[in-house]
Design brief:
The structure holds 2 protein chains of 2 kinds. By secondary structure, chain A is mostly helical. Chain A folds into 2 domains: 8-108, RNA polymerase sigma factor, region 2, helix turn helix motif (Rna Polymerase Sigma Factor, Chain: A); 110-183, Arc Repressor Mutant, subunit A (Orthogonal Bundle), CATH 1.10.10.10. In chain A, 71% of the residues lie in helices and 0% in strands. In chain A, helix 2 runs antiparallel to helix 3 (46-63), helix 3 crosses helix 4 (74-100) and helix 6 (120-130) crosses helix 9 (160-181). The longest helix of chain A is centred in the middle third of the chain and has 27 residues, at 74-100. Chain B is an all-alpha fold. Chain B folds into 2 domains: 5-54, no CATH class; 64-126. The longest helix of chain B is centred in the last third of the chain and has 21 residues, at 106-126. The chains are: A mainly alpha, B mainly alpha.
């Protein structure tokens, strides 16, 4: 969204920063599930996602009393915090996997047949986790988090054209993965 | 019209079938093409199938405990000082001992100790790293 648009969370953040309990509750109600969704899509792990969502909110509490209106949207700032936390965890996960399984090329949980063929939701989650991280991030930000192209590209520090390319490759990968996993099924 | 079928396909491939996700600057032209072209509608329908798949992914809910833990740390809420430090851990242990002496109720002591431990763990997460 454009920078001239007023941040819809600004008032809540400023009030929360002044110790307004109702504003804090409202922020938690609107942002915590959103951060949980973001982290779960990125990490594919419930506990890790909850830890990330919690850490992101705790950082928001530190930031709220210092919040400067107009610098950045709070929602975008919070996404950046959560995404960075997710990448920290993905990096650690890679390091552990490379220690334990040095011969394995693909670091994610991957589409292992034992757990991807139970139901559609798990198939989609497995396919998402099997995507390269940057493609997954693009799809998570644009499809699941409903960020604008400019916001998502800004968060990922790429051009809108590069974001579009990541999205297209990601969606192509998902189409192939889901077709492979459930060739006879239709969506409706 | 700058959004031809080729560009429409690129938009659909990247952003899916929902016009709300299409680039704002091209949305009106893309929607006009969609209304006029059966090929465009076929591309849109294909993308809608993938969108529907993606929307079937579920998200686990955040636990009540985590929600309460976060609200406890909100600006202006009451806090116990120093839980993130070594002294905080000592205080948590001491609180457990005091409670044990005062109440002698094992279940209650366990609950209170859990609460103290929870606070101590929450504080230890971010003290060094987050502020500033």
């Amino acid at each position: 969204m454009s920078s001239v648009t007023k941040d819809p969370d600004e008032d809540l953040v400023l009030r929360a920063g002044r110790g307004d309990a109702a504003a804090s509750r409202a922020l938690v109600t609107s942002k915590l599930p959103r951060m949980m969704r973001l982290a779960y899509r990125m990490l594919g792990d419930r506990q890790a996602a909850e830890d990330v969502a919690q850490e992101a909110m705790l950082r928001a509490w530190k930031q709220a009393p210092l919040w400067q209106p107009g610098a950045a949207r709070f929602d975008t700032w919070l996404h950046r915090v959560a995404i960075n936390l997710c990448y920290d965890r993905l990096r650690r996960r890679r390091e552990v996997l490379s220690d334990v399984l040095p011969e394995r090329a693909d670091e994610g949980p991957g589409p292992d047949q034992g757990w991807i063929d139970r139901d559609r939701a798990r198939q989609v989650e497995a396919a998402l986790q099997a995507l390269p991280e940057r493609q997954r991030e693009a799809i998570v930000l644009c499809h699941y988090q409903d960020l604008s192209q400019a916001e998502a590209a800004g968060l990922m520090e790429v051009s809108v054209e590069a974001l579009e390319s990541l999205l297209a490759r990601g969606r192509r990968g998902l189409k192939v993965a889901l077709a492979d996993l459930a060739p006879e099924r239709t969506v409706q | 019209m700058t959004v031809g079928l080729k560009r429409f396909e690129q938009i659909i491939d990247a952003y899916g079938a929902d016009p709300g996700r299409w680039p704002e600057a091209e949305r009106a032209e893309a929607e006009a093409l969609l209304a006029a072209s059966s090929e465009a509608r076929a591309l849109r329908d294909q993308a809608a199938r993938l969108d529907a798949w993606l929307d079937q992914a579920t998200t686990p809910e955040v636990s009540e405990l985590t929600t309460r833990r976060i609200l406890k740390r909100a600006p202006g809420s009451s806090r116990v000082l120093g839980w993130g430090s070594g002294a905080g851990w000592a205080a948590a242990a001491a609180a457990g001992i005091v409670l044990g002496l005062s109440f002698g109720n094992q279940a209650q002591v366990a609950n209170q100790a859990d609460e103290g431990l929870e606070q101590a763990m929450t504080w230890s997460v971010d003290e060094a790293e987050y502020f500033g």
